[in-house]
Amino acid sequence: MADQGGYSQHGIARTSRVRTEEQRQRDLDRIAKYRNLEDQVRQRVAASDYSPETFRLTSALLKLNPEYYTIWNARRRCLISSSFSKQPSGSSHSKASSNTFPTATTRGSSTASSSAPSATTPPSQASPTAGTSGTTAEEATHNDRSDAESEAHDFSIIRSELTFTIPLLLESPKCYWIWSYRLWILQQAISRLPAARARAVWEEELRLASRMLDKDRRNFHAWGYRRHVVAQLESPVLNGKSMAEAEFAYTTAMIHKDLSNFSAWHSRAKLIPCLLDERGADDAARRAFLDAELNQTREALNVGPEDQSLWYYHQYLILNIVRPSQHPAMAPHFSTTDRIAYLERELDEVRSLLEDYDDVQLVYEALFEYTLFLCELRRGNAKEGKIGEEEKKDLVEWLGRLKGLDPMRRGRWADLERELGLEEGPGSR
Amino acid sequence: MESLSDIHWDVVISGTGLQQSLLALALSRSGKKILHIDSNDFYGGTEASLGLQDAASWVSRIEAGGGGGLLKSAAIWRPEDSTGLAASRQYYLALAPQVVHARSRLLEQLVSSRAYRQVEFLAVGSSYVFKPASEPTQPAALVRIPSTREEVFSTTAVSTKEKRLLMKFLKFVLDHDSSPQQETWHPYAEKPLSALLSEAFNMGEELQKLIYTLTLSLNPGINTKDGLAVIRRHISSMGVYGPGFAAIYPKWGGLSEIAQVSCRACAVGGGVYMLGTGIQSTEVVEGGVKLELTSGDAIRTRLLVRASEDAASGMPVIRRLVAVTNSSFDSLFEPAVEGAPRPAVAIIAYPAGSLSTAAGKASEHPVYLSAHSSETGECPAGQSVLYLTTNASPDAQELLGRALDAFLDAAKPSAQQEVRVLTKLEYEQGSGGSSVLITQGPILTFQATTPSIAFSDSVLDPIRSAWKKILGDEAVDDEYLTFSDREGAADDDDDVYEQ
User: Fold this and answer.
1) What angle do CA A146, A150, A155 make, to 5 degrees?
2) Beta carbons of A302 and B337 less than 8 Å apart
3) Which of A399-413, B234-248, B410-424 has the weakest average pLDDT?
4) Domain range holding A426?
5) CA-atom Rg of chain B in angstroms
6) How far is A258 from chain B (nearest CA, A)?
7) Residue A339 in contact with residue A331, Cβ under 8 Å?
8) Which domains, from first to last, does chain B contain?
9) % of chain B at pLDDT higher than 70
10) Composition bias, kind Basic and acidic residues: at what positions (chain A) (predicted)?
11) Which of B31, B150, B243 sits opposite A5 (nearest CB)?
12) How many structural domains is chain A composed of?
């Protein structure tokens, strides 16, 4: 480690040149090793060699390049031909699975949830088509195990595969192929393990999804993945029941971490109808729920009026008030008087934002849209000219501000103006 | 074997305070012959961390006149019944318990020099403001200060209207170097920050106190220019190394650990270290300096670097109280946000006026209490170390005591055993004239830095000046504190290729 005098005695130049040459040689070595590894795997695949040795080689190659999806497929084939039990042993236990019968005529994993392009591979080894009888000579030699042993064996493979993908995921969290491989493994859990064990695996998956969302809260792929995992956990295949309450609480936590989270607000909106039904909420409870959501959103807008995700959610709440046939969850049986009162109150609240935020475009857009809703409630469709004097005055004012704040969209403002008959008289421009 | 006197040294660095140690780090790959000495038998100088016994000796030395002009009025106290107080070596009281903001240049330099690998960094939680009880029957409260949009959203301590003002101000600060913000605050640049807050932002006193606390400044009248810069550093540091925190604190004594890691790096690079050795006499000669060390060695060196022990008059003097308690105050160290690391340091601010003496006089200066959990390594598990700081004044000692009592009252874990103070250390510390490096021929002198709650990057500038002077033409600006890892240090991906 004699590095005292060696390096920068006379400054940089010598040092960096030496490193670059070393670095270059190292890179050349790495490339050679990679190519060699790749060649080995491809040769074996070409020879239909899906032995444990091939499997080991795919591990090494995938660690270097998880995007190489052909190799993921090779790995799946290795598992099916030499690692997993011949018969998905869960078949004797699982109830609703239609995909686990080991006859060669059915293709495995045909559930809608599987999104991997080649997640299913027909068994390529010579397993007899009359598998249902279960005791041919070949199966006996291949799989001299009891059901319980098969299950334990498959479980350990599943776990080890999931573990294998984790460091790869952490390094490449948006690599589709890793996620799709995980989904395939998870699907194997459903088909090969009894429901209780499969469920445990999927629950762990939910925890992983949460961790990924912690690292990147606005990753909508991760939100979609999460919804998929939740859907599986809720399904009868995994003895599931509704997770609406827990998921709703999750969106609350995510919003508190980061208000500007389209996906969290969106999930929240999607969950509310289910949630209220499950709670057996009556009209009073639904009203109270609406009040609480309006309060919270108001507090959020108070600190983030420029945030579009908040306004989308607020609009969703308003639509519950204004279009109950499309959004019946929170205010299904309000009287029209009630609805008008609620809308007027919300308009007042939004208007009060102008005291401190008078140049935020989204506030004016909300005021404009909600005023139109008010016309609708009071009289009928605003586009059919049913705008009152008061409302017209407001609409003209908001539109004026919008024209000033967003001159690039003047075509749009002009359209609105025309549609609603809001043009000022001649000479007032 | 060569003796020290035979070697013609390039640099002798006297003292292992933070500045001298970072200089040693900067020189650690230069191949220069460096002799680094310290008259103490510990590293760190004024930024050191001390066990209880070392602290007692340190106090005695100061009281016997050994603090230069910088340190005085030192005392250490222990109650008669000292049950609970562990062995001296289980404590590591920091003399410079400064927090370091994520955007601080110090962290950049620790990263580029690779020294960060030797340091364990802990999260510093959000600051609190001490709110005295409005009525005698009401308890005093510790109010968390919101400094991100989500914190403002969640807090119940600020009214709806005030939240808007706070948001506007935070956005303003982040961008205050552009127009139109500049036009708004330039007229107030040299005036106190409070003037900007009340006149340009219409903020009430309570909100002003919250904002003032974001500066972590000991100066109640901090001017607008400085105040805005410091607040911006805080806000832009938020979340940089993880959610929920803006500053970090090095484990094992704060800045003292950075000093030690730096010295270690220099030693690895060939520097020679001698603790318990000071300079007896100095003589400027042709080609450098002749030194006689307290060890008796006669040394020749081209350059001598040291730190001044003089306090400049008119510069801030602070008073500090360090109290070890038998409680871990767990609730104080809750992460601000789910998924955030558990903080090891929590700061409570007592704005001017929130404390009064027994005679009823209100405090004129802010007091800061920096609470450290045992995670810092500064005390055993189940205990905590509280560092209280304020500007020195005739009332300072009493006010620090009051702040401590108020804290113990407000933060005590409910209905638990009584919280007791196991030992106390007190002292006063002055500061040097400015941060500029003093050059007198072959002798370079660092002036004493101003003690502060948060680390100030101005401490780093004179170090670079010294480095330049020492390396002369060999100094390459881009290479200042920029090294690659030494062999053997952290090389991750290669194992996959080792097949």
Assistant:
1) 150
2) no
3) B410-424
4) 267-429
5) 24
6) 6
7) yes
8) 4-51+252-312+434-479 (3.50.50.60), 100-250+315-429 (3.90.660.50)
9) 96
10) 139-152
11) B31
12) 1
Q: Name the packing angle between helices A308-322 and A262-278 (round to 10°).
A: 30
Size of interface A-B (CB pairs under 8 A): 71
Tell me how many degrees the CA angle B496-B498-B499 measures, rounded to the nearest 5: 95
Residue A365 falls within a domain, yes or no?
yes
State whether A256 and B496 contact (CB < 8 Å). Answer: no
Give yes or no for A164 touching B (CB within 8 A): no
- Nearest-Å Rg of the Cα atoms of chain A is 31
Q: Closest Cα of chain A to B316: distance in Å?
A: 38
- The token pair that represents B65 in the structure block: 């006149």
Around Cβ B199, how many Cβ atoms within 10 Å? Answer: 12
Which residues of chain A make contact with B337, given a CB cutoff of 8 A? 256-257
Which CA distances in Å does A378 have to A137, A326, A327, A382, A389?
80, 19, 19, 10, 13
- Inside any domain, residue A236: no
Q: What is the pLDDT of residue B60?
A: 94
Q: In the predicted model, what is the mean pLDDT of chain B? A: 91
CATH at A382: 1.25.40
Contact present, B432 and B312 (Cβ < 8 Å): yes
Query: For residue A47, is it within any domain?
Result: no
DSSP A104-161: TTSPS--STT---TT------S---S-GGG---HHHHHHT---HHHHHHHHHHHHHHH
Instruction: Say if the Cβ atoms of A3 and B486 lie within 8 Å.
Output: yes
How close, in Å, is residue A296 to chain B by CA atoms?
9
- Tell me the per-residue pLDDT of B358-397, one tens digit each, with 9 for 90 and over: 999 999 999 999 999 999 999 999 999 999 999 999 999 9
What is the pLDDT, as a whole number, of residue B17?
A: 96
Task: Report d(CA A333, CA B219) in Å as an integer.
Answer: 60
* Selected residue with higher pLDDT from A102 and B114: B114
**Three-state DSSP class for residue B49:** strand
Token readout for B48 is: 């050191």
CA distance B42 to B322: 20
Residue A197 lies in a domain: no
A343-388: per-residue pLDDT in tens? 999 999 999 999 989 899 999 999 999 999 998 888 766 566 578 8
Across the interface, do B167 and A256 touch by the CB < 8 Å criterion?
no
pLDDT at position A66 over 90: yes
The answer to whether the CB atoms of B474 and A64 lie below 8 A apart is: no
Question: pLDDT digits over A286-313, tens only?
Answer: 999 999 999 999 999 999 999 999 999 9
Burial B452-479 (b: 16+ CB within 10 A, else e): bbbbbbebbebbbbbbebbbeeebeeeb
Phi, psi at residue A55, to the nearest 5°? Answer: -55, -45
Look up tokens 């070392």; give the residue.
Answer: B54
Residue of B nearest to A57 (CA): B499
